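Quick note —
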Amino acid sequence: MNTCLRTSHVLFLTAVVPLATVRAQWPHRVDLDLLATTTDTFASSPHVVADGTGGVFAVWDDNRNSATSGRDIYAQHYDANGIAKWTPGGVAVCTAANRQNEARVVAAGGGSVYVVWSDERGSANNERVFAQLLNAEGEPQWTADGIRIGPNEFDQSDLVAIGDGAGALLVAWGEVSNNFRTFVQKVDATGTGLWGTGGFEFSSGVFEGASVFNLVPDGTGGVVAGWIRFGDNPRTIYARRILAAGSAAFDAVPFGVDLQALGNFIPMAPDGTGGAYLGWQVDNGVNDNLFIQRVDGTGALPWGTGSKQLVDAPGVQDNLHLVADASGGAFLVWDDPRTGVDDVYVQHVTSIGSFSLAANGIPIATPAAQRFSARAIPDDAGGAIVSYRQNQDGTFAQRIDHSGTRLWGSDGSHLTDNGSVNFPHLTGDGAQGAILGVLAFTEGNRPALKRVLASGELPTSRLVNISTRAFVGTGGAQAIPGFVIGGSGSKQVLVRAVGPTLGLHGVAEPLPDPFLTLFDKNDVAILSRDDWGAGPDVALIESTALTVGAFDLPAGSKDAAIVSTLAAERHTAGVTGVADGTGVALVEIYDADPLDAPTRLVNLSSRVFVGTGEQVAIPGFVVVGPATIQLLIRAVGPTLEENGVAGALADPILTLYDADDMAFASNDDWGSVGATQRNIVTAATLAVGAFELETTSKDSTLLVTLAPGKYTAGVVGADGGTGICLVELYVVP
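Predicted structure written out below.
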């Protein structure tokens, strides 16, 4: 491979996207799962929260530094394609002495997150609550290793962390002094505690002896707290609302009095009026049953005093979870052995206390099977998403709508294999799907993630970016990239012709003023653009570029860009120089649709001039997904000459590079590979609908199976030859 190609290849990579942004993508199987850390030491299941654009923030306890600092806290941000955005292996949030654990993550807005954890740095086995704010780049914004939330010198435990809905953090914890007391603090983005030095003691006056509590936001910057008072006989359920300013909206309200309220968790969900739904488990001496109650924003009990029994069936019902719907009601999900085998059931309750589904609830899936360890979240469309373990088959998820209809088939979506995961945590993906955080036992006890789309399908591998860097001349030397959208329907794409900005990245002779035109399958021009910042859709171009991870174009640059929704068919992006200008340009096509879109980029065919030095042709592409993908890549020169293209490249050489700029596959004269390989390549050629090449031609072809990542394909002429070449990339079905 000559030196000029190597130099140009590196320039292409640095100009398009930093190499560190391509890591791993959403997997199918847990043994291929997205691992947040690379160490083979025990870590916790990741606590996860959606980033609002289909991705996720994850935090976990990590033993990689156990020899020096004990267990620490790490964090990572993954985008909608499962690509790690922060430091490989995760950002170190806290590496203070002794043990840190119980990590929680809360969205702070603008790509920032709060991380909260229990910390033993002052004294082993004596915990304190600490927090840190990470900005969109994963950089700590407060004191290194975090700030104290609760200042008292008592053991603090059982932390709960949520957002207030307006960018502030709400944290509750228990303290063991003479009695067990519980506090909640509101913290803003500067790290300032807004509810007094020690927070608001929400159990004051009625709580001594309790240790089970929970929080939900009240929708106006405050919080509703719920707890069980174990010191009472019978045990009592309480609720209290603290307003945004830190004052109580009402005194603690006792509304559930039961002989044996059980459990180490009190499930809650907001009711949409500043109040909350609360649930609990009761041992009645024969079976354990589940009860719920609602308290509104004023402290009133709209359903009357006492509680509502959720289930009247044999067996021990437990592991209750509550999820708010979009109309003031709630879904209730629990483990239930009524048939003699554990199963997961669901019920819906309205704001007036009426159960919407069949009496005693409906099973989450059919046919009957052993299901347990249910978790539930809203699906952003008025329904719920429920994850659960099933038999020895692994982890599943089901999505149900407001009427209880199962949307992901009768038996749900299969997420992980058996024996590989435990301790799941679930969050929405912002697109009516979900992301599951688990601990992968088969991967050295590493935290791992799994995404399921709104359709119930798992993400599959695909091309999300195809591009060509080439010389743009005049006449027959113009750059003419074509691309095919496969599937049914339409696809939103970002198409860019970058010229002058390449000069900022070391390209000596960039195209000074590219003009970009999109053509349909009939070669009819449908859109054109000169100077990307001069049109009416600048904001759309900027936001789409941010979503797909494209590098920034300077304001006022003469690069061209178009965002358009195109039909699933063949299209062409013609690039010329304004006033017959010439130079090197980068033509990019980005898939701007969600992962579950029914259409995909399946082909890139760029007719370009291949010269020497900076004028070699460099196609690039990015593969994301859970598995490998097979691609047919061709550099066609001599066959063009036979079909009437004057000045075609006589003998192209095709070389494929990975994200580290390492060549790993190359071909010169495709027919020289032997009969067996020629037959395989010919079969792939027919499968993708490409025209056939004579076995004696000097065209070049590579048939490769590639893992997710970023790749480039360098095309040069043998012995320094130049000419017109058709560079093609096909996804092989």
